[in-house]
Design goal:
Blueprint (H helix, E strand, L loop, with lengths): L7 E7 L20 E6 L2 E6 L3 E5 L4 H13 L2 E5 L9 E5 L9 E5 L2 E6 L2 E7 L16 E5 L4 H16 L7 E12 L5 H11 L4 E5 L2 E5 L2 E6 L2 E11 L7 H10 L1 H18 L3 E5 L5 E4 L4 E11 L8 H8 L7 E2 L1 H12 L9 E6 L4 E5 L3 E4 L15 E11 L5 H19 L4
Parallel strand pairs: 1-5
Antiparallel strand pairs: 1-9, 2-3, 2-12, 3-8, 4-7, 6-7, 6-20, 8-9, 10-11, 11-19, 11-23, 12-13, 13-22, 14-15, 14-21, 15-18, 16-18, 17-18, 20-21, 22-23
Helix pairs in contact: 1-6, 2-8, 3-8
Length: about 425
């Protein structure tokens, strides 16, 4: 756990149209090295450098993060001539999925460039200067090996989860399981290479990077703008098949009792936990279909207006209340989540945990860390690397398991969900 007692100054100003950074894509501004990202359809935030950082773990991670951020903001003088969400001091967060010991992190970058509603701005902490930009590096040859839970192990875990649910007398209705895959690269892994390729193919997802956790998530856990709050719940998945059009697959997905039931669990879970914070909450009666390049999801956009409560409905406090939803935990969540680590036999780390940003005014966006990988550098030289270390990244994907799940189909679904990061590593755009 780390903070700073010295006073800092955060200065936010609009970028002048003559500034060369004004019109370049946000991801193109990342200089390399330690960087952060939250970008969707050309808007969002990118940053670099580290003015302050918190490392925490365990069941108190949300409380620790909220207290640290409030305390740190009390030591920051703010000069903000823009006044949009994401201006002033901004912390990027990536929190562990489970309460068991696991790394969670908040980072206050030295420089953040943001864009919202066509307005481009820059925030600097103290006397931060832009580092010399480095060219984006290619990862070289990519090879794959089993992670801590192989595809075969995942199939067995799914089969056991189905057995447990079928013998629970209907009390256990959904368990969300995942498995991992290790990718090794012959050259050092530059996360900007992943970010560029992910956003080129999945521009309608939130492309994120925080402390080596890199991905493109389609699922928004919570967004807060003043008194407005919203969430995008995803559960229920189909994927392209030869000879079937997207329209046909979407219609089948909407007509699937298994997928509609799974989705209802997730939407109801989110609404039930968010409702105490709201004076108004709107939950559509039926889901829509979100179409991505590799899969189709049932989606529900939940919107609400926060009540004027004494605690100010802090975003991290609300995130703690709603995480994990049934979309990434199960139903009933309290019964399903403990079974996840038992069935998977691995530590998920920050996979499926909250990831995104919060600002000093309480605004922010936190998604669920899906379609992602945790970068881990190797300690051995890669072939053709001139003695430099190659890269290593642990990829994750999962799905919701219900009593009617077919283990073979669930394995196929997870392989489809691994494609975004695999293709990004291999340079596919």
């Amino acid at each position: 756990m780390a903070t700073t007692s010295r006073r800092l100054t955060a200065r936010t100003r609009r970028l002048d149209p003559a500034d060369p950074r004004h019109d370049r894509p946000l991801l193109d501004l990342l200089p390399g090295g330690e960087s952060v990202s939250w970008v969707r359809e050309g808007e969002g935030l990118v940053g670099w450098g580290c003015a302050a950082r918190l490392d925490t773990s365990g069941s108190d991670r949300f409380t620790d993060a909220d207290a640290w951020w409030r305390r740190l903001c009390g030591h920051i003088d703010v000069e903000d001539s823009v006044g949009l969400p994401g201006c002033g001091p901004v912390a990027f967060a990536s929190l562990a999925f489970a309460d068991q010991p696991g790394d969670s992190v908040l980072v206050l970058p030295e420089v953040v460039v943001g864009q919202r509603d066509g307005v481009r701005w820059i925030t600097t902490i103290g006397d931060a200067r832009d580092p010399e930009p480095q060219p984006v590096r290619q990862p070289g040859t990519v090879s794959y090996s089993d992670g801590r839970l192989s595809s075969t192990g995942y199939r067995q875990a799914v089969a056991e989860a189905v057995r447990l649910m079928r013998t629970s007398g209907g009390e256990l209705r959904k368990i969300v399981l995942a498995h991992d895959l290790v990718a090794s690269t012959s050259e050092p892994l530059d996360e900007r290479f992943l970010l560029h390729n992910l956003t080129a193919r999945y521009g309608n997802c939130w492309t994120f990077a925080v402390d080596g956790m890199v991905g493109a998530t389609p699922e928004l856990l919570l967004e807060r703008r003043g008194y407005e709050v919203r969430s995008r719940v995803l559960a229920g998945t189909a994927w392209p098949h030869p000879g079937r059009t997207d329209d046909e697959i979407a219609a089948e997905l909407l007509d699937s009792a298994k997928n509609r039931s799974e989705h209802a669990y997730a939407a109801e879970s989110l609404a039930e936990r968010l409702r105490p914070f709201c004076s108004e909450l709107s939950v559509p009666s039926a889901p829509s279909v979100l179409r991505l390049r590799n899969v189709l999801h049932l989606a529900t956009d939940v919107e609400g207006k926060l009540a004027d409560s004494p605690d100010g409905s802090g975003l991290l406090h609300m995130v703690e209340a709603v995480h994990p939803t049934a979309a990434v935990g199960g139903t009933p969540t309290a019964d399903a989540v403990p079974l996840i680590s038992e069935l998977e036999g691995m530590d998920r780390g920050r996979y499926a945990g909250p990831v995104g940003w919060i600002d000093g005014a309480g605004n922010g966006e936190l998604g669920i860390a899906l379609r992602c990988g945790q970068i881990e550098q190797q300690s051995t030289a890669g072939a053709g690397s001139g003695g430099a270390r190659g890269g290593r990244v642990r990829l994750f994907a999962g799905g919701g398991i219900v009593p009617g799940s077919d283990p073979d189909l669930e394995v196929a679904e997870v392989e489809a969900k691994l494609l975004p990061v695999r293709e990004a590593l291999e340079g596919v755009r």
